[in-house]
Design brief:
single chain; 272 residues; alpha+beta; D-amino Acid Aminotransferase, Chain A, domain 1; 6-stranded antiparallel beta sheet; 7 helices; 15 strands
Amino acid sequence: MEKCINTYFFKNNEIINSGKFSPEMVEAGISLYEVIRVIDGIPLFIEEHLQRLKASASLINKKLWLNPSEIEKLMKELVNINQVREGNIKIVFNYYKEDNNFLAYFIPHSYPSDEDYKNGVNTILFHAERNNPNAKVVNSSLRDSVNKKLKECNAYEAILVDENGYITEGSRSNIFMVKNHVVYTAPLKAVLPGITRKAIIDICAENHLAFEEKSIHYNELGKMDGLFITGTSPKVLPIRSVEDNSYPTTQQEMDIIRHCYDEMIADYIESK
């Protein structure tokens, strides 16, 4: 169920007490969304998130009635009125019958611990795929099914597998794999174009790391040297296991990527 935390949220241009938030505001109709991490009071990579939001709207033939500068202004005001330095903001364009609404609110977050970054996390396989992977659209049914399975297996993330057995993405992240010093991830057409995903690809190019977009069958997981998760909350997070397959959590390529991504975040925050 959709949750809103902290004291206030925005519905259109109105500041509302969070006690009046209802999950139906998001779960009824069609909802386009982005989740943006706030660090030191700064919404991280907000420009890229808003570009992706616009692209998602175009893919499902919807229009956004707020421009990027208006959305950014509301997000900064949301951070200020809630006096939050760190957290995750969800922004939503909801289309329900003739009633369209913009929402911006803080959601519960869980960031990996130092131990997770050192030792990696456990993951599972989940055979499912999103109907339109390039568009970020709320899919409550898939989310609830995955969350139930994650809880049952005490796993951090579920790696989605399509009907042909190929790995696409995580349920709330992108997945990268390393084999023989080559970094792999699923082709863009099969996944959400993650903001962190693009940053990782750029980092590989800048550091002359061999990289390839390639469809990898889940039966090949046992042949991989390492795997890692990327996303808004986890940043760059090693995977310790995928069900029965275990991996070392220190890889030369992974370490370079994680260090460079942390530097990218620090530079962005400093620029603001």
